[in-house]
Amino acid sequence: MLDFRLMAEAFPAILGGVGNTLALVSGSLAIGIFLAVPTALASLSAYRPLRGAASLYVTCFRGTPLLVQIFLIYYGLGQFAAVRESILWPVLREPWWCALLALSLNTGAYTGEIVRGGLLSVPAGQIEAARAAGMSGLLLYRRIVGPVALRQALPAYSNEVVSMIKATALASTVTIMEVTGIARRFISETFKPVEIFLVAGAVYLALTFLAARGLRILEWRLSPHLRHAPAPIPAAK
Amino acid sequence: MVRGALVTLAVAAAAFACALVFGTLSAAAKLSGVRPARWAAEGYTIFVRGIPDLLVIYLFFFGGSMAVTWVAKMFGHQGFVELPAFAIGTFAVGLVSGAYAGEVIRGAFEAVPKGQIEAARACGMSGLLLFRRIRAPLALRYALPGLGNVWQVTLKETALISVIGLVELMRQATIASGSTQQPFTFYLVAFTLYLALTLLSNKGFAAAEARAMRGVRRA
Fold first, then answer.
1. Which domains, and CATH codes, for chain B?
2. Taking CB atoms and an 8 Å limit, are B52 and A180 in contact across chains?
3. Cα B129 from Cα B2, distance rounded (Å)
4. Which chain A positions have a beta carbon within 8 Å of B49's beta carbon?
5. Which of A83, B72, B115, B163 is deepest in the core (most CB within 10 A)?
6. Is the pLDDT of residue B68 over 70?
7. Crossing angle for the helix pair B35-50 and B85-111, nearest 10 degrees?
8. How many beta-carbon pairs below 8 A join chains A and B?
9. 10 Å Cβ neighbour count for B118?
């Protein structure tokens, strides 16, 4: 039968890994957006080399497993003496920064495509109308294109957030003690995989559920124009 | 390394077949009128989509081995029995991808126009014949792009099976970089081979889609 005492014991320990998991998720998502916006703009630009560079980045990071990317950065970069002697080495030596870097580059590629889709979904008529009203350049982006694209990209982005929460589990393969890392340690110490799996799985389910729900609420807030009008107040007799 | 890539391809194909079975079952359960079956399928989708795949692989690897060891002990066998990583990996990745495939297949069956089914009924088809001649071929056409995505995800997921010791492309790269002290070189080779596999299968699915769509009028 299930060992409930072990589950009660493992729960706070595994919960202790949530901080690391969330730090990796929020860090990589933040850096990912910084990579994604230029990538999307480059892939939509009229300038061919820029389009080519964006497409190369997206293809490479979407076409290979995240695990290979993490290992390539963490184990691979140390092969070069130039990297080991550079000022970046104290950063690239640490598994935490390497995992963060790999996760960021990975989500940057996926988010770049999402942002591109969002930008493409802005109706041409709206842009023409803004131009006709005298807006151009940054003002046009800030007032019209940005907000509309953001709203359109949000559902796809919320999928990306959920998949990033799950993707941080791979950081445990380079010794980082986040939720999966701690769960793995418990499994190999206690040989009770089912109990530990249930606890860790519940933690992940809670995280993904909360993230998806939060983004749903944001989506609802940002689309008042798509909601039904409230029922009219009956006129007084 | 190329042999590793072949193992990766084999395990991905096996896992994809597994995913199609789980996906079909889950889609059938969701489209059926039977409430408990629908709930079970919903639960399966929610759980698998909310939990990291690595955790699922650990569960089946350690859990499966524990269960078999326990059974073996009852028959007087001593010591820990380790299950073959290929079978466990295939099953675990198949189970995860099956949840995604299930959604694709369900959507495809729902996309079959009602008029087609009514027309077939009017011609006197029913039950299996209707399914075989009308619903399944049409659904397959709608499902193809989604299944292509599931295949790509499955292919990349197989890299995770390396953590339980199956010598596929990823594991092969780790072994090679351990013995030569050139990790970057070997992980880069693995990176390139994965990229080649995904790009090639992309081409393959595009061709299959073009073939499936050959009777469709385009605006």
1. 2-212 (1.10.3720.10)
2. yes
3. 45
4. 162, 208
5. B163
6. yes
7. 120
8. 117
9. 10
| Cβ-defined contact of A166 to B62 (cutoff 8 Å) | no
Torsion of CA A152, A158, A163, A164, to 10 degrees: 100
Residue B156 has phi, psi (to 5 degrees) of: -75, -30
Q: Do residues B163 and B56 lie in contact, with contact meaning Cβ atoms separated by under 8 Å?
A: no
Distance of alpha carbon B151 from alpha carbon B18, whole angstroms: 11
Say if residue A2's pLDDT is above 80.
no
* d(CA B142, nearest CA chain A) in Å: 21
Domain range summary for chain A, segments of one domain joined by +: 4-224
B123 touches chain A (CB under 8 A): no
The length of chain B in residues reads 219
pLDDT tens figures, A201-232? 999 999 999 999 999 999 888 888 777 777 77
Count how many Cα atoms sit within 13 Å of the Cα of residue A134 in the half-sphere of its side chain.
0
To probe the interface with B, which of A24, A58, A61, A68 has the most B CB atoms within 10 Å? A68
Concatenating the DSSP letter of every residue in A121-173 gives TS-HHHHHHHHHTT--HHHHIIIIIHHHHHHHHHHHHHHHHHHHHHHGGGGGG
Q: Which residues of B touch A69 (CB under 8 A)?
A: 191
pTM of the predicted model as reported, rounded to 2 decimal places: 0.87
Type of residue numbered A95: P
Measured in whole angstroms, the distance separating CA A213 from the mean position of its chain's CA atoms is: 15
Whole-number pLDDT of residue A237 = 64
CATH T-level fold of A4-224: MetI-like fold (1.10.3720)
Residue A40 has pLDDT above 90, yes or no: yes
- The whole-angstrom separation of Cα B69 and Cα A209 is 35
Nearest to B187 among A60, A71, A168 (CB): A71
Ramachandran category for residue A5: left, alpha or beta (phi over 0 → left; psi -120 to 50 → alpha): alpha
Q: Are A183 and A14 in contact (CB under 8 A)?
A: yes
Question: Quick check: B50 and A191 CB within 8 A?
Answer: no
Residue given tokens 């007084």 in the structure block: A236
Give backbone dihedrals phi and psi of B167, rounded to 5 degrees, phi first.
-85, 80
Inform me whether the C-beta atom of residue B187 falls under 8 Å from chain A C-beta atoms.
yes
**ipTM of this complex prediction, to 2 decimal places:** 0.85
